[in-house]
Amino acid sequence: MNRDIIIGDTHGCAEEVRELLRLVGWRRGVSGLRLFFAGDLIDRGPDPVGCVRIAREEGAIVVKGNHDEKATRYLRHEERRRATGKSNPMRPPPESKKAQWEALAGEDALWLEALPTTVEVRPGWLLVHGGFEDVPMGKQRDDKVIRCRYIDPVTGSMVGFKEGSLEQPPNTVYWSERWRGPDNVVYGHAVHSLEAPRIDRYDGFACYGIDTGCCFGGRLTAMILTEGGPDFVQVNAHAKYADLPTGVLAS
Question: Would residue 249 count as lying in a domain?
Fold first, then answer.
């Protein structure tokens, strides 16, 4: 039986990743067994480089998260600044985060930068970090699918947050409420609960939000996908590494 193991946002929680991999019986090279991550390997937790190294060393298939994208974009600007003297247009992160970003070896950063934004896990199953706008798949934009949470119910376009806020913007709906398949979607990015994945079931398909806020003291979730359907395995966070921002629990 083929088993696809999909792990939600790790955010630097490398020890929890190792524990979860042991719990689900992951072994690289076993026929029919594949490992996926839903993005945002870095930031917030104690060992973001460790999470990147685990994913690379285990041959995992990973989609790019918004934190991964922001870090690699900053590092790319810094590389250009050193080479040309042109200033970095991005606001520098806090020193602790900056140190974590700069600890990524050149190959790790290049690997993160090259990650796809969407992958087909198996026929009828898509993996994305954020979500999808209510537009045809051919018109989805990479910069949106790694960040999408809320969309305008009329235009179907992503609606961003006000600066400094993670509260749901007025007159919006969560993207999965307008997803019409035909594929099932597995995604991270938005913490709906510190305990259980969010599952939105529709006629013949479903959307599964598997970020259960490990870095905030919640759980790290793995979705185990087989021909019989999905199942979930979780480990508790070993500690609370970051405070839960107001509004981060998506409605």
Answer: no
Domain-located, residue 14: yes
Number of domains in the chain: 1
* φ, ψ dihedrals at 21, nearest 5°: -65, -40
At residue 200, what is the residue type?
D
The pLDDT of residue 101? 94
Domain that holds residue 208: 3-236
Beta bridge partners of 233: 222
Strands 184-187 and 150-151: unpaired
CB count, 10 Å around CB of 239?
13
State the burial class of residue 221 (Cβ atoms within 10 Å of its Cβ: 0-12, 13-18, 19+): buried
pLDDT of 15-64, one tens digit each? 999 999 999 999 999 999 999 999 999 999 999 999 999 999 999 999 99
Q: Give the residue from 207, 190, 208, 70 showing the smallest Cα distance to 130.
A: 190
Residue 245 within a domain: no
Q: What are phi and psi of 72, to 5 degrees?
A: -70, -30
176 domain-assigned? yes
The CATH code of the domain that includes 34 is 3.60.21.10
